[in-house]
Specification:
The chain is 15% helix and 43% strand. It has a domain of 132 residues: Beta Barrel (Cathepsin D, subunit A, domain 1). The chain is an alpha+beta fold and 190 residues long. The longest helix has 23 residues. Strands 1, 2, 3, 4, 5, 6, 7, 8 and 9 form a nine-stranded mixed sheet that branches. It is elongated and about 95 Å long.
């Protein structure tokens, strides 16, 4: 009669090899997941300085952009030429002049995507129009919302906020400036 309770012994090498193979396969799957950006973009994370050169579609000359994680939305220096009478709803066209400190300027006309309320220093609010614009930042084209502001009193006419940093998959190294080329692949035209 056979012993039904006799244990079957597996060689240690076979068990070790099986566990090691399973662990390697599991880790390989984890590693490939970490290389993809959290927003689903295919661009790898790129480190940039807190000041970079870039372009706005419709302008010929590169500009200096300040990159700021403290700003929710990107902001550009704009003089409003014409706007809809109703400042509470999206829609309608706005015509504005972008002005850089070095006398670079251009007139744009865009549909308003929304109006944003901004706190003033006295506890009140004022409204700014928000439009979609395409900018070249550190060699990457990024199209995202931009609010139109009077930035004449600031050193930089373009402030890149978290919305464009996230969409462009850009991280700021605050110890650096001008780390990347201002040109983007493929010339964009308005």
């Amino acid at each position: 009669m056979r012993n039904l309770f006799k244990r079957k012994h597996y060689p240690i090498k076979q068990i070790t090899f099986s566990l090691l193979s399973a662990t390697l396969l599991f880790c390989a799957g984890c590693g490939s997941q970490q290389t993809q950006a959290s927003d689903g973009s295919e661009q790898p994370l790129k480190t940039v300085g807190w000041i970079e050169k870039g372009n706005i579609v419709g302008l010929d000359e590169p500009l200096e952009f300040k990159l700021d994680t403290g700003a929710t939305t990107t902001s550009i220096n704009a003089e409003i030429i014409s706007k809809p009478d109703n400042e509470t709803e999206a829609g309608g066209m706005i015509k504005f002049r972008f002005i850089n400190g070095d006398d670079t300027s251009a007139v744009f006309e865009r549909p308003i995507t929304r109006w944003v309320k901004i706190k003033d220093g006295e506890g009140g609010y004022f409204r700014r129009p928000v439009v979609e614009m395409k900018l070249c930042i550190a060699g990457r084209w990024v199209e995202e919302e931009v609010n139109l502001a009077d930035r004449d009193q600031f050193n930089y006419s373009v402030l890149i906020g978290r919305n464009m940093l996230k969409k462009g998959n850009l991280a700021i190294d605050s110890n650096k400036k001008f780390t990347n080329k201002s040109e983007c692949k493929g010339q964009e035209v308005e």
